[in-house]
Write a structure and sequence with these properties.
The structure holds two protein chains of two kinds. By secondary structure, chain A is α+β, with helices and mostly antiparallel strands. Chain A is 55% helix and 15% strand. In chain A, 26% of the residues are buried. Chain B is α+β, with helices and mostly antiparallel strands. Classes of the chains: A alpha+beta, B alpha+beta.
């Protein structure tokens, strides 16, 4: 059983995390959630109630593409992958995020 | 760019498929989680519980996904609309009543707005109407005259550098149009050559008039689009056809664009002719060089970048110079010095009689109907409030189950919006029909309506706006209140809590106050109408039949004109039922003509400029005073001996007679050295309308003036015995025997003419009375509803009182006392409002003060009587409750 949530998801970071999670290749919904948990070292655990709406929102924004295919346990699942626009968006949001986190880190040092 | 639209389309049109896919995706993820738990050794039931704990409810997640998809709001809206329709269908009586009362209010407001918009607000359908200006002139503090002299117009046209174009027009009224022997009467206008170019109009057919047409010797005419359709069935071959206008040949060269009815809004023209064509149709002296003869309207278009002040400054100087150069007497010099030109914006055209008469009136009517609409909304709000109480449990349950307050308010508002939309739809039909009926009533003698009243975007926008505002008014308050948290606790108590009692009481009080204002208004206007009818006019309006004839329309010229009128009088003489006959230039209670002159010589006195006596004058045939029943107080009437060959004579009114020293009979009067002998004095009459004060009037023999002064259409008057309907065919025959080309115009009795002159007052009184009656019924229904509710809610308490021995009369007093409190408070506020608003409509009253005690007391009495009736029914019900049954009554809902 996965551990309880360890940190509240920061506002605006969910999109960035989903895009990053999908940058390595296509995944279905639960897969995205697990990948996020994995790449954040278990710090972030996304609830389905936030995850699925976000996936649909990003898809409608044109950053994700989706198709139906069989999953690992032979169930039909909806797989998402980054579009070209999504990759560009990931780059922008990552840069923006680094800019902010640097600024905050500097602020905390002084 | 198309991607979002495609998704929206898919989300809406393939809603089911999208929902299915979302379900498969979310449920699939959930199921695979369950399987994983099972794989880790949990029993199926435990696995499912663990998965639900980690995942949340599948349906909730799906709903959250649906909410982020494009077009989600449309989904909720559709749900709300379906739900709202179901609810309305469940209480059809409420739905029908609410929609009908709102539709009446919205429809009436729409009808008044449609007329007001077409008559006053709308810009002319020409190029850049906001650059048009209209000229007028006047002395300091005096009224401005929109009729200008021709030489000043010519000078402005030639010299102005601030105006891109200037044109003149002269609406000359009726003209007979004859095509291949088939005659009918049309409205004509003379326009200067630049008229169509400056307005920037393009022809629907053929060509429009141009400067080259405005020369002597050219005989061309342009038809309006409406007239072309009406009279010639839109035949394209009309262009190039020759027609007779008052028996003079003209060639039709084109048709105006559709929708254009002239620059004088409310008085559409049918045929336009070049200004110079006046010389072919009229025998009057040439007016082109008369700098003090005002007869044309002048309009212009500002050059780009020029302000109206700059243009006014320039044209004012030109206007003054022409007047000063032409002035031939000290009086004219004085006039030219003091009277200045003024330019005003003319985007909405110039004011016709119809606009002047009904512009302010329509504003008042609009205020009245909006008050009625406001009242209808308050009434529906009261109804919704008691419905909301009945639905309290449902709403409380939904709130408890976690529905957001905003969501429920939105849904309640959707219901109200549905009602408002249905009402607005019905209101549109009502507004279209109502505006046509109103226009018909306001212009009873016109064959074709003077305004085009087709529903259009502006009317639709107005109605939609009204619907939204009324919906918020009657829907928002109940919706907010029935979802407030205070309500949730209150719903558990008996009686709905103190809060509700305050609100529906104030709603009823507001309704009572508003309907009292309307009733007082109706009373004031009805009394005004009564005063006007009872007004002593100085003539006897019973049993007089009138009609006009214009010999010019039959192509008569010169001395033939007077001869024709004389022969018509002779032909009428022997008709059975015609007791007395006569004719006059000016018709009683009509504004078709109003002749004014200044008298400089009265008896021995010679009056200087500024002290001359302004008189209204009429030209009358022998027997006029006997026919109209105006007593002659001294001297004689005109007779056959008063001819162009005999010495000039006049009859003066009593008011004018007072300007003479001694007996006026035998003394002389005149505008200059051309004086006439006074042979009679007539009793004063209210000359132009029943509202006029008696004034100085001079009567001139119709058959003594030179023929070329008979350019008008005289009115023949017959004092008859029997029924006028029997007389009219005989009159037609008699006139046709004189000349078959003569047409009878405006055949009606003097009473009908008086009635028509009071149309505005009558319509206002009737419409306010209807509005007030409707308002009264609505507010009594509101009162009845609130009291009934109250009795139901207090059933247990009343039962207890009865069981403890209270008399039924005491219980009745309990309910009636509450009603009296509401009505008294409402009536007090209403009286204050009525007194304040009545002052604003003082100009529409006649012979009645704004605080007229009869109108005030009558309105209050009517209100109290109706309210007592509305309150008595629930009071009686309360006093007849069976105490035992009432005590068992649980209270609340």
């Amino acid at each position: 059983m996965p551990p309880r949530a360890r940190a509240a998801l920061l506002q605006g970071t969910l999109d960035l995390l989903i895009l990053k999670a999908l940058s390595a290749g296509e995944l279905h919904g639960l897969g995205v959630s697990r990948r996020i948990e994995q790449i954040t070292g278990g710090t972030f655990r996304v609830q389905p109630g936030s995850l699925f709406p976000a996936l649909h929102r990003l898809e409608e924004a044109g950053w994700l593409d989706s198709r139906w295919q069989p999953s690992e346990n032979n169930r039909r699942a909806k797989y998402y992958e980054l579009t070209r626009a999504g990759r560009k968006q990931l780059g922008e949001e990552a840069a923006h995020w680094q800019h902010i986190s640097l600024a905050i880190a500097r602020a905390l040092e002084t | 760019m198309w991607q979002p639209l495609r998704q929206l389309w898919r989300n809406i049109v393939r809603r089911r498929q999208v929902a299915r896919e979302i379900d498969e995706e979310v449920r699939g993820a959930f199921e695979s989680l369950v399987e994983e738990f099972e794989g880790s050794g949990l029993s199926p039931a435990e696995a499912r519980r663990a998965a639900t704990l980690a995942f949340g409810r599948v349906e909730t997640v799906e709903a959250q996904v649906r909410d982020v998809r494009r077009g989600a709001f449309l989904d909720t809206l559709a749900q709300d609309v379906r739900f709202g329709l179901r609810l309305l269908a469940r209480s059809p009586l409420f739905a029908i009543f609410a929609a009908a009362s709102l539709a009446l209010g919205i429809g009436a407001a729409g009808a008044a707005f449609a007329l007001f918009d077409r008559l006053v607000l709308r810009e002319l359908p020409v190029a850049q109407p906001d650059r048009l200006v209209v000229a007028s002139f006047g002395g300091p503090g005096g009224r401005h005259n929109y009729s200008l002299p021709y030489p000043q117009f010519e000078a402005i046209r030639a010299r102005s550098r601030t105006l891109a174009g200037v044109f003149a027009l002269h609406p000359f009224g009726r003209v007979t149009v004859t095509l291949r022997g088939d005659s009918s009467i049309a409205e004509g206008v003379y326009v200067s050559g630049d008229y169509y170019r400056v307005l920037g109009l393009a022809p629907a057919l053929g060509r429009l008039l141009q400067p080259a047409d405005d020369r002597p010797g050219v005989a061309v005419a342009v038809l309006s689009h409406g007239y072309w359709q009406r009279r010639f069935g839109g035949r394209p071959d009309i262009v190039g056809t020759s027609v007779l206008l008052n028996a003079v040949p003209f060639t039709i060269v084109g048709v105006e664009p559709e929708g254009f009815t002239g620059t004088e809004v409310g008085r559409p023209h049918d045929v336009s002719l070049p200004m110079r064509a006046i010389e072919r149709l009229s025998e009057g002296p040439p007016r082109w060089d008369k700098a003090f003869w005002t007869w044309i309207y002048v309009m212009g278009r500002l050059k780009p970048g020029v302000t109206i002040e700059e243009a006014e400054q320039e044209t004012r100087a030109i206007f003054a110079q022409v007047g000063l150069d032409a002035a031939a007497s000290p009086g004219q010099v004085q006039l030219a010095r003091t009277h200045q030109l003024r330019l005003q914006p003319a985007a909405t055209g110039t004011a016709s009689d119809l606009r002047t008469t009904y512009g302010r009136w329509l504003r008042l009517l609009l205020a009245v109907v909006i008050a009625v609409l406001l009242l209808a909304s308050l009434n529906v709000a009261t109804l919704l409030l008691s419905r909301a109480d009945a639905r309290q449990r449902e709403i409380a349950t939904r709130l408890a189950l976690g529905a957001g307050r905003a969501r429920i308010v939105r849904q309640l508002l959707t219901e109200s919006m549905l009602l408002a939309a249905i009402a607005a739809g019905l209101g549109l039909a009502l507004a279209t029909w109502g505006s046509r009926v109103l226009l018909r009533l306001a212009t009873p003698f016109l064959e074709t309506p003077p305004l085009v009243l087709a529903p259009d975007g502006r009317l639709l926008a107005f109605l939609a706006g009204l619907a939204v505002v009324t919906c918020l008014l009657f829907g928002l308050m109940p919706a907010l209140r029935s979802t407030s948290s205070a309500r949730l606790t209150a719903s558990r108590q008996v009686g709905g809590g103190r809060h509700r009692r305050g609100l529906d009481r104030s709603l009823v009080m507001a309704q009572v106050a508003l309907s009292l204002v309307l009733l007082v208004g109706a009373g004031l206007f009805l009394r005004t109408l009564g005063r006007l009818w009872a007004q002593e006019t100085g003539y006897d309006r019973r049993d007089v039949l009138m009609f006009s004839i214009d010999a010019h329309l039959a192509g008569k010229r010169g001395d033939d004109i007077a001869e024709t009128y004389r022969r018509v009088l002779e032909a009428l003489e022997p008709l059975p039922g015609a007791r007395r006959i006569s004719a006059s230039a000016v018709r009683a209670v009509s504004h078709n003509y109003y002749f004014i002159d200044s008298m400089a010589r009265i008896g021995d006195r010679e009056l200087p400029d500024g002290q001359q006596v302004r008189v209204a004058y009429n030209l009358t045939a022998p027997g006029y005073f006997a026919t109209l029943g105006i007593p002659l107080v001294a001297g004689r009437d005109f007779d056959r001996g008063d001819t162009p060959a005999s010495s000039p004579v006049v009859i003066v009114s009593e008011s004018l007679a007072r300007h003479f020293t001694g007996n006026p009979i035998g003394q002389r009067i005149g505008p200059d050295t051309n004086t006439s002998e006074v042979v009679g004095v007539a009793k004063d009459i209210r000359y132009g309308s029943v509202k006029d004060a008696p004034r100085e009037v001079m009567y001139v023999p119709l058959f003594q003036v030179p023929s070329k002064q008979l350019w008008f259409a005289p009115t023949f008057a017959i004092r008859y015995a029997g029924r006028p309907g029997d007389l009219i065919p005989a009159i037609r025959d008699a006139v046709a025997r004189v000349d078959p080309g003569l047409e009878l115009i405006g055949v009606r009795t003097l009473e009908a003419q008086t009635d028509a002159s009071l149309t505005r007052e009558r319509l206002l009184a009737l419409l306010t009375a209807y509005g007030g009656g409707f308002a009264l019924v609505l507010s009594c229904l509101g009162l009845y509803g609130v009291l009934s509710d109250r009795v139901t809610l207090r059933t247990a308490e009343i039962g207890l009182r009865l069981a403890l021995g209270a008399q039924p009369a005491a219980v009745r007093r309990l309910v009636l006392g509450e009603a009296a409190l509401m009505v008294a408070a409402g009536a007090l506020a209403g009286l204050g409002g009525a007194l304040a608003t009545a002052r604003l409509v003082r100009s529409q009253l006649f012979g009645v003060e704004p605080d007229d005690p009869v109108a005030l007391a009558g309105a209050v009495l009517l209100l109290v009587a109706m309210a007592a009736l509305a309150a008595y029914l629930p009071a009686r019900r309360a006093s007849r409750l069976d105490p035992l049954a009432a005590l068992r009554h649980e209270g609340g809902s």
